[in-house]
Amino acid sequence: MSNIIDTLRVVKTGKFWKELVIMTLGMAVAAAAVYYFLVPSKLIIGTISGLSIVLNSLFELAGIHIGLSVIIMVINAILLVLAWVLIGHEFGAKTVYTAMILGPLTDFWDAILPWQTFAHDNPITGSPSVMGDPWLDLCCFVLVLSASQALLFSINASTGGLDILAKIVNKYLHFEIGTSVSIAGAVICCTAFFINDFRMVVIGLIGTWINGLVVDYFTASLNNRKRVCIVSKEYERLRQYIIQDLSRGCTLYEVIGGYSNEKSIELEALLTKDEFSKLLAYIKDNDIQAFMTAGNVSEVYGLWTKHSKRQKLQKQVDQR
After folding, report:
1. Distances (CA, A) of 143 to 87, 134, 140, 152, 213
2. CA–CA gap between residue 189 and residue 47 (Å, rounded)
3. Could you give the CA distance from residue 155 to residue 62 in angstroms, rounded to a whole number?
4. What per-residue confidence (pLDDT) applies to 309?
5. Is the pTM of this model over 0.90?
6. Would you say residue 267 has pLDDT above 90?
7. What is the distance, to the nearest Å, from the Cα of residue 41 to the centroid of all Cα atoms in its chain?
8. pLDDT score of 234
9. Do residue 186 and residue 253 come from a single domain?
């Protein structure tokens, strides 16, 4: 009962509905990648969609016509239970939506622009192909799907299916999310031996590995932050600007210069790229003398990303 109440609280928030648009667009892109680059060539990448293509082909060989979208929905429904129990209510609530619309969105692309209208037979495999070559199909699929996955991961959602397994591996075994995608996907790739030759299975395995690398790249790009370290006599002025104008926290350290042996204060803060640019402009416009270093940080946890909590804490401090 408490799980249902917690999920309803998530769904009622304005943030959830704003992210609903992002989830819908992300899933439309993911469905297009599956429909146009996997379905025609039967190229099996380590995804639930790839596994569904294998099962659908086996069912058709047995004279059973179920439909790809139905198989995708059934498998995702099973994995959603795992997401709800093992990962969290917010992730589970969002993934219920994304997983359930993947199949219908695949049918949507089939209805408005069937791949048969512009696909042609691959001269090597004899199978239909949108790009004309399995390697080109692979590259296009990986790039399009990885961008969609990284976008959804950034708002604590996923495309469902394999991403659920990857998120579980990431949470409990602490692997990078891209590595988790590769591990879970490699197992699914091996099921392609039922419908494809060895060459196509190898292409699928390579694609799964590349998919993990590209997901990590896109995820790091979306979550990239700047760790800024500043040594300046006007550190108090900079501290006030970071806290009051940028709404970010900072940390002060007492340091000793190795050359001058003078004591100074070093200010450290984590900023977005836009906030970092504003800080540089502020320092330049006010002619503040400072020694600054900056480095990239790919992951940040805690209150940093929660503006509402920081503002609430700041109000409590001001009231005291």
Report:
1. 26, 14, 5, 15, 10
2. 8
3. 41
4. 47
5. no
6. yes
7. 26
8. 92
9. no
